[in-house]
Amino acid sequence: MAVYLLRRFILMLITLVIVSVMIFAASRYSGDPRAMMMRPGVTVEQFEAWGREMGLDKPLPVQYLVWAGKVLRGDFGVGIMQHRPVLDIIMERLPATIQLGITSTIFALIGVPLGVLSAVRRGSAMDYVGRVFAIMGQALPPFWIGLVMILMFSVQLDWLPAAKKSGALSFIMPTITLGWFGAAGLVRLVRSSMLDVLDEEYIKLARAKGVSRQAIIWKHAFKNAVIVPLTYGGLLLGGIFVGAVVTEAVFGWPGVGRLTIDAVLQNDFPVLSALTMIFTAMFIGANLLVDLLHVYIDRRVQLT
Amino acid sequence: MDDIESQTRDLDRAFAAVKERSGLAKFRHTLGRLPVLPVSVLIGLFLMAIFADLLAPHDPTLGKLQDRRSPPVWQEEGTSKFILGTDQQGRDLLSRMIHGSRVSLAVAGLAIVLGMTFGTVFGLVSGYSGGWVDEIMMRVVDIFLSIPLIMVALVVTLVVGKGFMTVVGVLVLFSWVPFARQVRAETLQLKALDYVALARVAGASTPRILLRHILPGVVNTIIVISTLNVGYLILTESILSFLGAGIPPPTATWGAMVSDGRNYLASSWWIAFFPGIAIFITVIAFNLFGDWLRDTLDPRLRQMG
């Protein structure tokens, strides 16, 4: 276990280093960092003084280390759109995204009972509903789901607020937009995994013994059937971060997803690179969490 | 005697029946179970993309401003000139959707073929080499799995600039991963089989063993993964286009068309609505066809969701 955690931790560090090198390379490739400070009346001497100040006269690997050292201390530089430290800008926006992420994950988790019901009542109307829900969730473009919901529930019916984060009602449409894709994947995985398990001998034995239907489904079958979908959990959480970019763009949600799009539109490289680092770290953390949960539930899994 | 003879004859007949079934009849049987609707949608889509110039009633990139935001034909102010209506620049929506199919299919097709080639070679080498080579190659895969695609896509687009090859490149960065993982897992199984050992004893070179003896064993898997992932790539391409990181205007892409319609949602719903339907139908057709292909060729892959 300790060895496993150490290995995962090292791999996480390597990943972050690689991502940071890519970002650093991209930032240098995209142009001289002094270019964005240029104003009319800047003299050549001043320009070169900036270069020395920013360490641009040093070799690239040294420049990278200096930059990485700052990043480690949480100093991502100053944003171009708003002349404030990048970390402040991001921290301000993070809560809105995390709130939406939580409601969306909860919504996505309804895929689990839906998948179980679909499998248990195979061929019934319930199964049909579950499968249509899954097929649609995996094929509908999320931004379009959002826009069509706005069209129906805000423009036509005037039931829900169209954009902007306000009360609890304003969470409904963004949550569905963000969570449906993950829910759809869960329905499919849980359903097929459950069907496999229900076919096993020990389920037949339990049935022959006279164990109640509910106990068979939830105690005997579900516990084993949930293992495969669990490995998908990390991807699900990662998908929520990524999907937040699209969802927040549609609903004008004041989170980091919306910030990402603004950074792209405004060529705000410091903000975008900080966001990429933070998203990657969260993504990896979520995957690690799911792996640990996996071990906790399935004692057969050996961590090496 | 008679009894035994008749029994042998019965057996012969049974064998003949099995033989026949495994040949043409089996093929016919499989063909009979083809999912008709998804397959016809896909054929229609490919034809639409190929003959877009002939099929589109108007120029997809040119419009007259006086025609702008004309509603679809069945609405009161709609005209039969623009069946699905026009966008904010007076361009015919139907024509743009027909041309948009080219972008979706070309981008996703190219990305899947490149990703498949690279991922398969990667998986074959990794699985066959074993040892520390395999270890390192699989950790590389892990690293790719733990980087959020959309962030990389946006950073790359910002640095390299928008364009067809940028979108394809970004999608390839991620489309090879499932191939590499699955091909490696199957190579591990195949290389332990006797016939591979025999080939090695007979003096076959490593590339020859990989290409002639192992690759044929993973072809079904490759086909299934390709089909199952095309839909996802089309969806991702539309998301990039919607976010403004796709192929730049005036080229018609479905995602960008939905984005065009965002600001006119209340007054001209059709601009955003119809291109979304096109994405939906295309992705669902690929997914359903992929599901069927997986159940037919390689049901073990069902766990991949």
Topology (elements, then pairings):
The complex is a heterodimer of chains A (304) and B (305).
Chain A: H1 2-29, H2 44-54, H3 60-72, H4 86-109, H5 111-120, H6 125-139, H7 142-156, H8 172-198, H9 201-209, H10 213-225, H11 227-251, H12 256-265, H13 269-297
Helix pairs in contact in A: 1-13, 4-8, 4-11, 4-13, 5-6, 5-8, 6-8, 7-8, 7-11, 8-10, 8-11, 9-10, 11-12, 11-13, 12-13
Chain B: H1 2-32, H2 36-50, H3 52-55, H4 93-129, H5 131-145, H6 149-160, H7 164-191, H8 194-201, H9 206-242, H10 254-261, H11 270-297
Helix pairs in contact in B: 2-4, 2-11, 4-5, 4-7, 4-9, 5-7, 6-7, 7-9, 8-9, 9-10, 9-11, 10-11
Could you walk me through the main structural features you see in this protein, from its secondary elements to its overall organization?
- The complex is a heterodimer of chains A (304) and B (305).
- With 304 residues, chain A is mostly helical.
- In chain A, 75% of the residues lie in helices and 0% in strands.
- With 305 residues, chain B is mainly α.
- Chain B has one domain: MetI-like fold.
- Helices cover 73% and strands 0% of the residues of chain B.
- Chain B has helices at 2-32, 36-50, 52-55, 93-129, 131-145, 149-160, 164-191, 194-201, 206-242, 254-261, 270-297.
- Chains A and B meet through helix 1, helix 6, helix 7, helix 8 and helix 11 of A and helix 5, helix 6, helix 9, helix 10 and helix 11 of B.
